[in-house]
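#lab-general

N.A. 3:47 PM
ok so I finally got the sequence cleaned up, no stray characters, all 405 residues accounted for. can someone with queue access submit it? mine expired

B.Y. 3:52 PM
send it over

N.A. 3:53 PM
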Amino acid sequence: MATENVTGAIEARNDAAVDHAPMSGVGGVLYRRLAAKCAGLTTGFDLVLPDGVSRRLGNGARTFRLVFRNQRALRAFASLDQVRIAEAYFAGDFDIEGDMLSAFRIRSVLTDQHPLMTLQRFIQPLLLGQARLNKRAISTHYDRDETFFFQFLDPQIPLYTQGVYESDDETLAAASLRKFKYCFEKCELKPGDRLLEIGPGWGAWFRYASERGVKCTGLSISRASIDYLNRIAKAEGYDWELIFSDLLEFRSDRKFDAIVMMGVIEHLPQYEQVLARFMSVLKPGGHIYIDGASTASKKDISSVIVKHIYPGNHSLLVLQDLLEAMSCTPLQVREIFDDRHSYFLTFRQWARNWEKNRATVVERFGEADYRRFLLYLWGFTHNMRTAASGCYRMVIRSPGEDAGD
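B.Y. 4:20 PM
back already:
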């Protein structure tokens, strides 16, 4: 499924294919609804019905085609509901041919009104308890064969959050290593220091810190992650301490020189509790590094993401809420950077990697999972490009032993 630099091919193929005959039935309803909704859209695309009839919509160069395979696809699109449309795509009821990133522009004309799903997000913690809900949600997304994620992450530096780019043409590996260097230096780490990482994932940061003499402890509620890291530690001789525990339940008399949480704050939106846990295990003068995708409100999350990618009450980072919670603690914000463009570049590379490895993904994990993550990866690429979502990295410090510090 090609995604970029295909405008000429789409134009040439479709110029002779567009049929101007009247349309009836569900296809006619769909065409009329989309034509009205897409009248102001600045990109052009073709709508291809199951009988092969094609209609042109939007404006400007045509960069993609929506190819409908059956009536289910027509009914889903006629509803204009994002969840129904996404599920029709997962099922293979329609295809997107051409530039996937441009195709996401039509999301602006679709609806996402699912009040019961929204209500459920906020009721679930009351019924199940936050820690139990976290374990269920994390297991749903992360507890699977690590090779699934290695089809889009950099296999040598499997970091599941943004790199830090200096130019658009850098490799993901280079951007990831730059981020690690920044984190290591800003946390003032040195050989012999003790580091606590929340959500160590597949060990990319652990390796970097361990090779520089830092003693690493990882906290995770993903069994798959802990099992994988234990295998790596044994095979490669790393002395990693791995603890299966939710941060909100973690208790320890040990104090750490630094706490690192890369791309995990989205799963822990209880900022007051998170900061309290940090302060309980951080040494005076110690540092905290946090980064994550952001949004303006905890309510701002796609129903497709909640239902099919990240269940539970997880939400993107709401910076103003985190800073407000931090203002009630002794913690000091040292630096905050806007990393949205870096996350756009990261997600774009992940999506390209996923497409490149399509055959392997489909063979091992199935067509539906391939389509589900393709939509997720290109969707967030679109969000980062258009500022529908943002991204921040920040360094925080605990006051030192000296009261005047």
